[in-house]
Amino acid sequence: MSELVTGDAVVLGLRPAKLPSRALALVIDLAVVGTVFVMVSIGLAIATATLDDAAVAAVSVATFLLVLVGGPIAVETLSHGRSLGKLACGLRVVRDDGGPIRFRHALVRGAMGVVEILATLGVIASVASLVSARGRRIGDVFAGTLVVRERVPAGRAAAVPPPPPWLVGRFAGLDLSAVPDDLWLAVRQYLTRMHQLDATVGRAMAERLAGEVAARTGVPAPEGVPAAAFLAAVVNERQVRDARRAFAAVRGPGAGSVGGPVGGSAGVPVGPVGVPGGPVGAPGGPVGAPGGPVGAPGGPVRTESLPLPLSQPQSRPQSQSRPRSQPGKTAAPGAEVRPAATGFAPPA
Description:
The chain has 9 helices and 4 strands.
């Protein structure tokens, strides 16, 4: 990690690129530039076949300067230090203060690159990069630039420690809607780093954060509960509520409620014979009453048309009826089946 200080006295933590990654990026750039140079040279050789030797030499020098020198300079200027090879390797050329490079920086780097890269096949650039503490070649020293890594592996976020078991669920009725997000962030950062702090400093910080949380919720922290344990229990309660809300959103708003999967098509649970929504008979009527599947009132009953055996009680008081699931439909996982008079609302 390299500490660079900007003009505003801000320390930048940049990771300088080492020789292997820079060499790989340079090989990719030289392969692309060399391919373009060969193609342009072939085209110009065909176009200048009728010219004399002096004109051909002048065209060759101009092609070399424009393609092998001017090309990388233009690319680094327009892309702010990211050529094709550096883009593939996750590198970027920046100024010593961490800012983007300009044309003069790219021009100095390109001019020095002709000597230390093209003329010596990269030997001078490799030696200078190995000697430098930040992997800079001579062109970087003269231009005041630095090649840094852009793709840095991100570390894992520390998990919030769980609260003591005797505090889990104790703050289920606490109103957490008034606690702002910046206070939640401060509490989370403290809980993930409390073991790295001094005992006195950590205790004072926990008490201050616990006081702010208690002031926002309107309920003071319980007596005898450490401030750090109180914060961990409150954060755990918020996580439980968020997970419950997310599960309810994924499961759907109608799962387990009246008119949902547990119940009839019209929102009334399907009851037995003679109960509203039952398969046989009118509401409260016996088998064979008006509205039955066969005949007029009191008419004969054909047993093959009944879905239930004849020994089934004809009617049952509605207060004693038990709702059952409609054939072909099952309750959602974890949904509670209750009578239609009360219903069930998913937890908020």
